[in-house]
Amino acid sequence: MSTEAATRTAVLWVPDWPVVAAMGAAQVPAHVPAATHDGRRVLAVSATARAQGVRRGMRRRRAQECCPEIELLDADDARDAREFEPVALAAETVVAGIEVARPGLLLLPSGGPARYHGTEERLAQVLVERVVHDTGHESQVGVADGILAAVLAARASSVVPAGGSRAYLAPRPLGELVHVVAGDAQPVAELVDLLGRLGVRTLADLATLPAASVLSRFGDLGAWAQRLAQGEDLRPPARRRIEADVAVGCELDPPAERVDVATFAARRLAEDLHAQLVERSSSCGRLRITARTEDGRELERTWRCDDGAMGGLTAARITDRVRWQLEGWLTASRVALGQRRRQEQRQRRGSPQGGRGSEPDDGTAHDDLPDLPEDRPSPLVRLAITAEEVVPAGVEQPRLWGVSSGEDARARRALGRVQGLLGGDGVLSVTTQGGRDVHDQVHLAPWGDAAPAPRRADLPWPGRLPEPAPALVLDVPEDVAVLDDAGAPVRVDVRLAMSAPPATVRWLAPRAGAGRRVLGWSGPWPLAERWWSEAPRRRAYLQVLLDDGRGVLLASAQGRWTVEAVYD
């Protein structure tokens, strides 16, 4: 695609949106300096804080030194998206379809709206006025041929003439590419750093390189960056249509104590929800299941159902998700209540003064105390299902590599059938979570469960092994002997000093056999967890390359060596 044929794109940008959203949610006055942080560093800064020297990337303590009165707020992507919805709704009253690139940044096709309002400058003015009137937020609008030029134009509140995007971008540094990244910007930052060390420092330098050479040397990310630098569009903005969530619910009278009773009510709700979606010719991205117990607790869980994750949205499959969730809730409630009742029994059987294991004051023997009633979970009094992210049927986002061949959908339908036979926990998907040990970084969740991992992977984890991550983590570590050149065992002392360099790794029973020579190794890395407990976990890790081409992760604990994981 040439620059002349590129689609004219309008971009609406709300400056410093993460901190603006955080201040609005926390009711921080606009004149107070504020910033959001991830626990270590500042991620977004308000204009008043920036005027006092606070910058993105600063450590919290340094930011407080620059501005003692600064209000530090927690970063929250869900809050940013939720607070940005009124801005998107205000823009949609001016332009029929928009795309939310990220909270704080909207993409809009400008051709038709600009003709309706007269000029692109007038369209930008109307958008800014409508957003400030409906939401009170100041915004900036830019229009250009490609998305990168449009984003940079929005940051300057300007309109780039048709066909002039490449010249507009030419003198700008490569670091400007990060402004169009919606997710993790680290790969783009690494690409910019690499290109800079090779002498490619401006967008014009990148745009003039041979496309085939860029693709072969830097891969798809390099080709993506070059197309943006040339002022080209990767695709036109994906229009969205506002669709309200569809919710169904009912009161359970009498309250449901058993899964089968609650599932019977869930089946009627699922059929009603599915019928409403069919009547509207809509589908949904997520199902939110909520319940209220007799003791007033609110239970909630979200299941992903877009992109064929459920094998197709039907009333039966909706019912299955609700049933699995009810089983999990009622089972967890039963376990928690049982633990509480057993604790009460132990307290009743002990003396208030005598401590644990003492005889009761009234002289009654332990066996003479009456047992507490059978453990029963708190019954459910209300059940509801909500279809979220409702979209017109048939607007599923195409695959990254083009139109889907159907293999993914067939695989998802097969997994859905297996899950229907085995239950919610019968099919598990693997995600990465935070942790130091390689086993702790693996999180298994039921297929289709949209709940986030318990531990965030983007937080700092001191003592975590360096990249790359192993390809295979063994369920049961395998015992090995690590020997030096003389055949003596290699040991790691408390100061992390090794008795000798490793030369051979020999597997013990049941895989006993000839040892493998060590071609290279790195480490050791110490890991000490729960050092305050009675049973602390202390290990030293060693990465080893064997003569058969395998890389293994070795762990040493109390003189015992084991293979924890295998590298490709």
From TrEMBL:
Disordered: annotated span: 337-377
Keyword terms of this UniProt record: DNA damage
Biased composition (Basic and acidic residues): 363-377
Domain UmuC positions: 35-154
GO biological process: DNA repair
Entry-linked Gene3D superfamilies: 3.30.70.270, 3.40.1170.60, 5' to 3' exonuclease, C-terminal subdomain
Similarity-based family: Belongs to the DNA polymerase type-Y family.
Task of the protein: Poorly processive, error-prone DNA polymerase involved in untargeted mutagenesis. Copies undamaged DNA at stalled replication forks, which arise in vivo from mismatched or misaligned primer ends. These misaligned primers can be extended by PolIV. Exhibits no 3'-5' exonuclease (proofreading) activity. May be involved in translesional synthesis, in conjunction with the beta clamp from PolIII.
Protein name: DNA polymerase Y family protein
